């Protein structure tokens, strides 16, 4: 029996995890800004952030190649200053997964932030709370359920990305080949048996991870409800 190389699976999990953390760190302040701002620049920013949902993955990947390639100003600066290469490296896979997944986090978190009663925030300001304090002690606690759902959505989207990752990171075996690309590569080589095995592994791992994340979310909700009842 042909041995199954699990490197693409571990790389996919690593890429999805890093992309999710990055989306959480970057997406939270952007979502909050968009939920409170009515300036035209916020509409422009929102439109740009929505583009990865609308554009075909190949177009998005092409933009990233042009923007971050070694011949681009940003790519040259990253390579000469920090020695960082983006294109056709595992870092490129993280960047691609982050870009395609970020809009899903921003859309969900923004809706959660926008639903918070403005009077609560004004009351906190009257009490002398700073904006940072309000964000971490009022806004986040009131919207953590939606943020948790958004985080799960981002992880799932990043884990399954194919087109943009292929364009930016390529399909170098044991280096940049993620699980979706490995499945495509097996099909392209006519190895249907290996493709079936990889599909089953990918599906099983995804179901287990998403189920675990959902159970953790529900457990946290029960803990919060119990704490409210005790008070």
UniProtKB/TrEMBL annotation:
Domain of life: Bacteria
Keywords: Cell membrane, Membrane, Molybdenum, Transmembrane, Transmembrane helix, Transport
Gene3D superfamilies named in the record: MetI-like (1.10.3720.10)
Stored InterPro entries: MetI-like, MetI-like_sf, ModB_ABC
GO MF annotation: an example: molybdate ion transmembrane transporter activity
Membrane topology, record value: Multi-pass membrane protein
GO cellular component terms listed in the entry, alphabetical order: plasma membrane
Residue intervals passing through the bilayer: 6-32, 44-64, 84-106, 134-156, 194-212
ABC transmembrane type-1 domain mapped to chain residues: 9-211
Subcellular location per the Swiss-Prot or TrEMBL entry: Cell membrane
Family, as annotated: Belongs to the binding-protein-dependent transport system permease family. CysTW subfamily.
Free-text function comment from the UniProt entry: Part of the binding-protein-dependent transport system for molybdenum; probably responsible for the translocation of the substrate across the membrane.
Protein name: Molybdenum transport system permease
Organism: Anoxybacillus gonensis
